[in-house]
Amino acid sequence: MATWVLSECSLKPLAPVIPRPRTGAVLSSTSKVGFLETNKVLEGSKFQPLRCNLRERNWGLKVSVPLRIASIEEEEQKSVDVINGSNGVEHEKLPEFDPGAPPPFNLADIRAAIPKHCWVKDPLKSMSYVVRDVIAVFGLASAAAYLNNWLVWPLYWAAQGTMFWALFVLGHDCGHGSFSNNPKLNSVVGHLLHSSILVPYHGWRISHRTHHQHHGHVENDESWHPLPEKLFRSLDTVTRMLRFTAPFPLLAYPVYLWGRSPGKTGSHFDPSSDLFVPNERKDVITSTACWAAMLGLLVGLGFVMGPIQLLKLYGVPYVIFVMWLDLVTYLHHHGHEGKLPWYRGKVSFIISSPFFSYENDWYNVNA
């Protein structure tokens, strides 16, 4: 073994010591002595040094590890070069994104791309989410009331406001019918959840359905439609500031429930509003009554625990919930980052207008 190491390192090994025969015989010049397992032989008393294959041996062992790993910036630049064809190979440049063009797919394509198991509605699983969130809401309120510490209240407001938003999302699923296949179960759970956060369930559900049916339409969309230039210019200063100047739009949702979007009349609480057809008015009355019952319950709690405690336990989390609702909805419906000009006549494009934005960022259509 030592001889092998020496041979691989280009060191000349010592000549092996061959004991003299006791009989006095002389070692023949033709005798051959094997040297370990190297298949090298000794002829006579002359030692044949082993050949060192250090330079010929492939020490890389063909392991696929690069000598140098490219940085993230180099990889990104390489990808850009490939797209732009600057790496020596001609590539067709990707077309620029046109926010006014219809998408290269339709609703059927989207449905086909969603796995079948995603369409299965499990009411037990849906109710488990409701139970979990309700327990979290009451647990947070109990803990905050017990501790009653100003170091705890800000943390409580942030957490409870987020949980109010979670209740809204579950009620939103009831309104879409994705909570379960049972319309009565959807209606009962939706009323309990939305009324607890002062949202008229059916009134909002119907207007939200209209929003999805006419998303981005200048006239028929309910809440996220591009404003015509004439209407936008006609808004008074206060309305324009409250609707399009941060942070006021983060509190726009209660105002929207009472008065709808600019240029539209009616209310989500009024069964005679043009938001609803005649056969939906009973549903709107039911939701408005549930909303009023929740408001009465809050007034009663104010007398029992005091208005300040009610404000800390419910009022501030409600404001945080409204801010979550407006912010998340804004992010869901925000249009292309570029600014679109005023359009005239019939223009076919899909775009969404947020509750709040700066005037120059508004996407409008000239009426």
Question: Secondary-structure map with pairings?
Answer:
Elements: H1 2-8, E1 32-35, E2 40-43, H2 72-84, H3 107-113, H4 123-147, H5 153-176, H6 183-196, H7 201-213, H8 229-234, H9 237-244, H10 252-259, H11 281-305, H12 307-333
Antiparallel strand pairs: 1-2
Helix pairs in contact: 4-5, 5-6, 5-7, 5-12, 6-11, 11-12
Domain Fatty acid desaturase N-terminal: 1-141
GO molecular function: oxidoreductase activity, acting on paired donors, with oxidation of a pair of donors resulting in the reduction of molecular oxygen to two molecules of water
Transmembrane segments: 129-147, 289-308, 314-331
What does this structure look like?
The chain crosses the membrane at residues 129-147, 289-308, 314-331. This is Omega-3 fatty acid desaturase, chloroplastic isoform B. Pathway: Lipid metabolism. Residues 149-356 form the Fatty acid desaturase domain. There is one protein chain. By secondary structure, this protein is mostly helical. The protein has a domain at 119-333. Helices cover 48% and strands 2% of the residues. A two-stranded antiparallel sheet has the order 1-2. α5 packs antiparallel against α6. The radius of gyration is 39 Å and the shape is globular. The termini are far apart.
Describe the main β-sheet briefly. Answer: 2 strands, antiparallel
Mean pLDDT: 76
Pick out the low-confidence regions: 23-47, 59-66, 345-367
Using only C-alpha atoms, the radius of gyration works out to: 39 Å
Total number of strands: 2
N-to-C span:
94 Å
Estimated helix fraction? 40-55%
Main-sheet strand order equals: 1-2
Count of helical segments? 12
- The succession of helices and strands, N to C, reads HEEHHHHHHHHHHH
Assign the structural class, choosing from mainly alpha, mainly beta, alpha/beta, alpha+beta, or little secondary structure.
mainly alpha
What oligomeric arrangement do these chains adopt? single chain
Shape, please? Answer: globular
Question: How much β-strand is present in the residues?
Answer: under 5%
